[in-house]
Amino acid sequence: MLYETIISKLGSRMSLNFRPQEQAVYYSPLGRYYDGPMDLALGVTVDGETRCLPFTKQHEHFAELEQHLTMTSVLYRATWREKGLRLEAEFISPCYPQDEQLTTAPVIYLRLSVLPFGQTPESQRSGPVEVLCRMTWDAKAAGVTQMEAEADATTIRRRMTIDLSRTEIGTQSFFMPALEPLQMVLHCEDLLTAEAPSVTTNTDGFTFSLYCGEDEAWITWVSHTPDPILEVQGDSTPFKYTQFFASAAEVLAWATEQREEILRRTSFFDALFTEASLTAAEKDLHAFGFQSYLANSWWTLRPDGRDWYSVWEGCCLFHSTVDVEYNMAPFYLLFWPKLLELEVDAWADFALAHPDVTGKYLSHDIGIRHQVSVQAYEHAMEIEENCNYLLMLHALWRVTDDDAPVRRHWSLVRDLTTFLHDSDKNGNGFPQVGVANTIDDASPAVQFSHEQTYLAVKTAAACRAVAIMAEQMEDTPVAEECEAQIALIDHTMQREAWLGDHYAVCIDQGVAGVADPWNPGGTLEAEVLEEGGRIVGWDAYTLYTSLGLLTLQMTGAPLPLGQVERLREDIVRSAQESLGPYGCFHSSADHSNEWVSMNLHRDFVAAYFGLDLITPHTGLYWNFELHNNSLSGRGGCFTDTYGGNFLHYYPRGLTSVGMLAALGGVRFDRVAGTLQLAPARLPLRIPLVQLTDWPAMRVPWLTAEGGQDGPALEISNPDLLQGTDWREGEP
């Protein structure tokens, strides 16, 4: 099946967005929302006839086409039966976690080959096949105001000036402010060079003569933008890659000379997924979501040499939305903790005071588009974001055994925690102030009702995280206050929220004093009330109840709630009652939208409880992405929402990577030196990524088989576990 997809580079904005529904590829050196359509005539000419991939309007397309993804590539395999041949075109976006130069370098490779197909006389051809790669780019649509193009025997050079003052960048929606025109002009350079036995070059592309089954052609495509690209708290910051490369020529020299090693490392990263015992849908979902995340990432350099890392919230363009990054945190914890540390440090500058609650709360985001300065979103999500920050900070410490971030931000931790305590105004532990949450397209009951069970559980989890950190900081009063609130929340949960087979959405069934963040000062409309004045859906089944537990589970911390069997039953019953065609809606009473990333997060929590919801559900999520990005869909690459909302080109597909830990029930705590394993699916083979020796390209693999006495576990490369006490754990 053919569908829209994208490949990109971490923090560097270079991306290729393949849109077969438009018969085009979108490109710009600056990535999403600055790109323009390119007519890409990539195909073969045989006996005077030409067939191309479906990204051109100039030639007839191949009748048969396959599309395959890895974490770093998209492969198009086009078959021309009548001519007895097959064209392979593989676009590769090099990536290797914790290798900053390789992963940020603005380079994309294209590998081309022609293979014989079938046993026909045509497939036994003796002469070369003409392969063409012609690019007609609507540079004006990408904001290019001036461009010079030239070519020599093997290389195309494009120097351009790009004006980012267009106002149509991004997607306006009900929760996004109108954008003022940018005042930014950038100078960029692209270099494309070809390596092949025979190549003809002009400023629009290349033509190769390749012998079928014998030759390969490689195109190395690099970009370079030296100018500052992002304003961070008043600082003008250029791309991180300018630390390694002063020009496009330097990028090209490195990318061609080091190609073998670059691809070797890239293949190792791919193999962590391709060689795991994942289904085809699971592998595709990981790769698809990963590339949409990369296209949203920013990595720049501040004037004092400090790194800046943030992530756009897809079509919304908000920088480092805390709840979005919380969903994506498993990737950082597994593969690249430094990136999370950069965000933890950045968010610390964006804490605010509240008129009715002591302490502080964290901003929802830290800017929009090209400016990091203040929250750009319409309203705050005080409890939500405080909990997210505290949980991520705790997990970061436990997986790295570095408490420096905790110590740097301990004063902030105390302020955020004080807010959690003081938001409970009636003494039952449940927050009552600042309860508008991240589920901003849901019904009032799910989105901003008083005394939500979801936020209560998340608050209890955050308090447990803070209590553990307080022990490290020898701050006994904070630890005691947190444990006291946990006890209150647990007591209230079991007494008031439990409805026999699931937890209620909220325990305050009324609407008195409920603030609608989309209608400040207004009252809730009558249709949200059921008989007796209760808010509609207060007692519904919802997937959100347990979503605050995952980072505690990943690090093996004790859970804050005592009735684990009730949590398990709530997960199972809610999955049954709120399930739609592509996953679970917000609740059994609210089918307005579904968020794929939240479904994934719930499935991972369930796996740590010994419940395999991953196997039956992941295929549904991937079916949705295929449906949405097919020739008849809306497009938008990874799209998080099924329903009325349209969160597209969205980074939160990265959430799926947490599956590597969840399937194995992997609880890893570097501080304590412990590793617990409780597979949720058998047989299973997964990499224990937290223990990877990245410089040496070595990783321990967990293999789990079913046995008469329970799972039989085996770990390869056991020397990588030196100093770690590992054992089989209970779900």
Largest sheet: 8 strands, antiparallel
Which CATH architecture of the largest domain?
Alpha/alpha barrel
Radius of gyration: 26 Å
CATH class (first level) name of the largest domain: Mainly Alpha
Query: N- to C-terminal separation?
Result: 38 Å
Arithmetic mean of pLDDT: 94
Beta-strand share of residues: 15-25%
Helix-strand category: alpha+beta
CATH topology of the largest domain: Glycosyltransferase
Shape: globular
**Low-confidence parts:** none
Relevant terms:
single chain; alpha+beta; Beta-galactosidase, Chain A, domain 5; eight-stranded antiparallel beta sheet
Please tell me about this protein's structure:
By secondary structure, the chain is an alpha+beta fold. It folds into 3 domains: 5-274, putative glycoside hydrolase family protein from bacillus halodurans (Beta-galactosidase, Chain A, domain 5); 280-663, Glycosyltransferase (Alpha/alpha barrel), CATH 1.50.10.10; 668-728, no CATH class. Helices cover 29% and strands 24% of the residues. It has 17 helices and 34 strands. The strands form 9 sheets. Strands 1, 2, 3, 4, 5, 10, 14 and 15 form an 8-stranded antiparallel sheet that branches. Strands 6-7-8-9-16-13-12-11 form an 8-stranded antiparallel sheet. α7 (382-400) crosses α9 and α11 (453-473) runs antiparallel to α12 (476-497).
